[in-house]
Amino acid sequence: MSHDDFPFFHSLRVRWAEVDMQVIVFNGHYLTYFDVAFTEFWRTTGLPTPLEQSKEGRELFARRSGIEYLAPARFDDALDVGMRCAHLGNSSMRIELAIFRGEEHLISSELVYVYADAAERKSVPIPAAWREVLMPAPVGAGA
Question: Is pLDDT above 50 for 139?
Fold first, then answer.
């Protein structure tokens, strides 16, 4: 997996509060990094924000997350978090992410979100307008 596999990137720097006694990123922080990248990606799409979705009684719920640790990130590393929408189902989306330090691929992740009626907590179809924006995403579209 390389930078070329991702249309969107969000950059961040590892802070002291995110590392453990070995001065490497504590594993749980990677999910926060992925969430930040997903949020920044969503912001660039022009699709309804979480607050706008909530007003309509609909939300994206996290359904599943998986992380593969290839190499550790360390304090003060500059990281690039790559993200792409890999699959859109009727009501779910599979997001693939990866963290790079320079060209070195450190971490991979797959997140699944379900679009749902917030009150009923039941899945609803992803709007057609979203599909046009999310799939396929052109490589090089991120910041």
Answer: no
User: 139: how many CB neighbours lie within 10 A of its CB?
Assistant: 13
Q: Cα separations (Å) of 73 from 4, 13, 69, 133, 135?
A: 20, 10, 10, 32, 30
pLDDT band of residue 136 (cuts 50, 70, 90) is: low
Contacts of 140 (CB under 8 A, 6+ apart): 7
Torsion of CA 108, 68, 87, 129, to 10 degrees: -60
Query: Rounded to whole angstroms, how far apart are CA atoms 130 and 48?
Result: 9
Looking at residues 60-78, what average pLDDT do you find?
Answer: 97
CA atoms within 13 A on the CB side of 109: 27
Yes or no: say if 107 and 24 are a contact pair by the CB < 8 Å rule: no
Work out the average pLDDT over 119-129: 94
**H-type helices in 46-115, by residue range?**
50-55
- List beta partners, residue 97: 83, 109
